[in-house]
Calcineurin-like phosphoesterase domain-containing protein
Amino acid sequence: MPSKLRRGGYGKLQRDDHAYPEFLTDAGRLLPPAIHATTLTTREHAEKTKRIVIVGDVHGCLDEMQELLQKVNFTQGPDLLLFNGDMVNKGPHSVKVIQEVRKLGGMSVRGNNDDLALGAWEAWHRGKTELPEKVAWVKGMPKADADWLRSLPWTINIPDLKLLMVHGGLVPEIPLHQQSLQTLFTLRELIQDRHGAWRMAQDKEGEHGPEWTSIYNGHDFVIFGHDSGRGLQRGPRSLGLDTGCVYGNVLTAAIIDLTNSTGPALGNAQFQGDLIEKIKLVSVKSHHQYAPSCMRLEYD
Ligand SMILES: [Mn+2]
C-alpha cells in the first residue's frame, strides 16, 4: 500500500481484515489483526459451546458484572462470554473489569470508550503528563491489559447464527467492510441527505434523526450498545443492550442457549429471523449511580 494511506482517513478506511495490519488510526493507534472478527466458526468450538452470554456496557461496574455472571450461572468453557464494548470509563473499576474479562476468557467488540482509554494509555506512555480526568485511571493499567484493548475488533460475527455484534451501529446500505470505523462505535441516529443516502447524525452539532435500528434492514441480527438514553431496545433485527448500569439503572446480559431443542442449532439456516425469540435477557440492578446522566450522550 502507498504509505500515505497508512495514516489518516481513519473514518473512511475501506479495508479487509488481515490485509493491512500495519494500518494506523488517525490517532496513530495500530489497528487490530481483525477489524471484523468471527467466532464459533470451528466444529470443535461450536460443539463445546452450550450458551452464548453477551453483556452490555459495563463501564467499570465490576461488582454488577460479577453479580450478573453469577446470576446467569456463567461457566467458563461451555459458555462463550462476549461483551458489547465500553467496558471502561465513567465507573469505578475499569482496570479490574478488563482483567476479570480476560481471566474469564471473554472477548469484546471495541467501544468508543475502550478506544479512548487505549489512546490515553498510549499518550501517557509517550510521555504525556496531563490526562483528562475521565481517563486518568489508565495510568494504572498494565501493558498486557492495554495490549488486550488494542486487540479488540470493531465487530464480532457468528456466521452460523447470522449474528453480528457492534458497539454503535451500522449505516444502512453500506457493506460491513466499508462502514467507517468511527461510525461503527459511535452511531446512534441517522440523517438522510437530499439524494436519500443515510449517514450518521452528528448529535454534538445538534443533528437528530431516526435511530439506526429503525432503518436497518441487513441480513445479520445485530446486538449493540452505546445507547443508554434509549435503554433496552428490542427490534425485529436488532437488540440494544446498554441499559445504563453506570448511571444507576441495570446491567443486562443476553443469553442464547445453543442446547435447547427449540433454540438455535449452529449451522441451521432456518434460524435467521427467529433469533430475538430465542434470546433470554437477564439483568441486575446497579449498586450506585456512578456517573451523572448528562454524560450519557458523550461521544468521547
Ligand atoms: Mn459508547
In short: The pocket of manganese (II) ion is lined by residues 86, 111-113, 167, 226 (CB under 6 Å). The chain has one domain: 33-289.
